[in-house]
């Protein structure tokens, strides 16, 4: 036993260590908004409460460097706290309207497959095959679909409201979030500029997402046989070949960042990713390139 001490909560819900193991964060149940930072000696370094008389903290996560603590709340905001002053340095609201032209908005669209695969399907009498792609929305404002909270007027045990999932990129540059009453939308924020970078709107609710452990690349799944990728350079959709029945509900990156496991209910597939050098070598070795 190193230390035993009481914390200043009424109903402690969770404890999470910082990455350097010198501090820990504890928080109250959702009925009361309260976040406490403790040192290893048991002294309280900071106590934070954003508001009262409403549902409070829904999730927390530390950045890989331990410099930032992100607090996801039921009021649909992420509050970013730094480890120097233990004060909130930014608030990230998840509004239903995107007005800034500095924010890239990508929407998933389904189109009939063209070219040789479509011709082959037509010759064989197969139904029209659809392909899924991202299209960037340039007009502003952009309205995002949102689920009405408590449509029946009765309280819910687990309301679909607030920021429920957050992940920092491995280089601490970005934070990806999902607001549970906008389940099909993924938000990417820049930690360096403390502002919204991109919004990815999908046809189906986002099931899971995970950052590449080696670079700023995000993999996303929505319960179908597609895997979606975001990076600062844009978005990409990839259909899993020869596994159309695979409904991807989970993702797991290899530590090298060269493969990502796509997990389904009873099967899985491994997606192998080419590096930039491999892509250049393939292009240089292609006849007529």
From TrEMBL:
InterPro entries: Centrosome-WD_assoc, WD40/YVTN_repeat-like_dom_sf, WD40_repeat_dom_sf, WD40_rpt
Gene3D superfamilies, per database record: YVTN repeat-like/Quinoprotein amine dehydrogenase (2.130.10.10)
Transmembrane regions listed in the UniProt entry: none
Gene Ontology CC entries for this record: microtubule organizing center; MWP complex
Source domain of life: Eukaryota
SMART domains, alphabetized: WD40 (SM00320)
Pfam families on file: WD40
Full protein name: WD repeat-containing protein WRAP73
Originating organism: Meganyctiphanes norvegica
């Amino acid at each position: 036993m190193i230390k035993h001490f009481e914390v200043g909560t009424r109903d402690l819900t969770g404890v999470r260590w910082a990455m350097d193991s010198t501090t820990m964060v504890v928080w109250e149940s959702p009925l009361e908004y309260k976040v406490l930072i403790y040192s290893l000696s048991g002294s309280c370094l900071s106590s934070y409460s954003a508001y009262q008389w409403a549902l409070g903290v829904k999730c927390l996560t530390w950045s890989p460097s331990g410099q930032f603590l992100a607090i996801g709340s039921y009021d649909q905001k992420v509050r970013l706290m730094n480890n120097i002053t233990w004060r909130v340095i930014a608030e990230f609201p998840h509004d239903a309207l995107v007005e800034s032209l500095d924010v890239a908005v990508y929407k998933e669209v389904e189109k009939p497959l063209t070219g040789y695969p479509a011709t082959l399907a037509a010759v064989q009498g197969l139904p029209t095959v659809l392909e899924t792609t991202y299209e960037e929305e340039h007009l502003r404002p952009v309205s995002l679909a949102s689920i009405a909270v408590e449509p029946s007027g009765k309280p819910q045990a687990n309301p679909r409201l607030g920021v429920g999932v957050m992940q920092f990129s491995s280089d601490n540059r970005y934070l990806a979030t999902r607001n549970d009453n906008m389940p099909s939308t993924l938000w990417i924020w820049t930690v360096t500029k403390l502002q919204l970078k991109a919004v990815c709107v999908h046809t189906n609710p986002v099931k899971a997402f995970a950052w590449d452990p080696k670079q700023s690349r995000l993999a996303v799944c929505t319960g179908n046989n597609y895997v979606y990728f975001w990076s600062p350079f844009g978005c990409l959709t990839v259909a899993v070949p020869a596994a159309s029945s695979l409904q991807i509900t989970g993702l797991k990156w290899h530590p090298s960042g060269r493969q990502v496991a796509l997990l389904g209910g009873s099967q899985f597939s491994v997606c192998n990713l080419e590096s930039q050098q491999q892509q250049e070598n393939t292009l240089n070795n292609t006849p007529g390139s």
